[in-house]
Design brief:
The protein has eleven helices and 17 strands. By secondary structure, the protein is of the alpha+beta class.
Amino acid sequence: MREITEHDLHDIARGAAILGTGGGGDPYIGRLLALSAVRSHGPVPLVPLAEVPDDAVVLPVAMMGAPTVMVEKLPSAEQVGLAARTLAGYLGKELTHVACAEAGGVNSLIPVVAAAQLGLPLVDADGMGRAFPELQMVLPTLYGIRATPMSIADEKGNRGVLDTVDNRWAERLARSATIDMGCSAMISNYAMSGVQARESLVPGTLSLCAELGALVRSARAAHEDPVAQVVERLGGRRLFSGKVVDVERRTVTGFARGEARLSGMDGDTGAELVLRFQNEHLVAERDGVVEASVPDLICTLERETGEAVTTEGLRFGQRVTVIAAPADPRWHTPEGIALAGPRYFGYDIDPIGVAG
């Protein structure tokens, strides 16, 4: 895939929702925004990470806030462009490429909007290989790349630029601003050179999103098991199949926090799985025993269709299959685990990976 056309967006959105591990925002909203932008400005060139020039100026663009809020407070394409243009003006540099901060949900498609509006190519890569709830939780942080200067913009036209002492302070101050902006805002940060991008980003994630989406679509058309196709492609494993019997969800400090309880079906009959999330699924516990945790991916898929179910979309009675898949190996280094492992989120456990 050398460019993103309107025909690619549905598959990308479907695959991005899977990699989003329940978070990253509603991919349907992202697809609508990207569809409008591509129809208005034409296909977006997609550049492999290895082909980004050393002296490139790469600019990630994303949505920040609680996914539960975005369902009712829709962003606009103008808001996306405002965030990118604000940071570009502050930096005083000519941008050459747009990138994804995370491979999940709406945030795999917001950069398509920015690239189309700015007339720039999009890098086939992202900063995580999945979605995480806090903005310092990207691999560029492990490489010493600063989150700031970063821009933030709301749907009213308010905008600002933050310059902080470190990336965690960028998260803290930007989160406060996001709450005042209605718990949802557009941001642009982690401006980097081509050298830094090739070193720190996860290659091929947009192509992977499109591939996952196509796998689910083709499996359904052939009356095959789409969940099995996803598990095989990601090198993961099934954790649990069951029915959602309870969801506790609340929006706190700009995050969608809560837990979902599933009652087992088929081979899992009689068992219970609890999913604990902060925008994204963090821990999966079967009958009180942790089966999987961050930094690896925990994804909820509809049992029959293979469509990803986001944390804001979980509802009583849904029949889902929960799968786990390995994260980029850099997340399993001591530095990666300190940045986004279970203990960071308050769970006093060692990471439980896909291999158990």
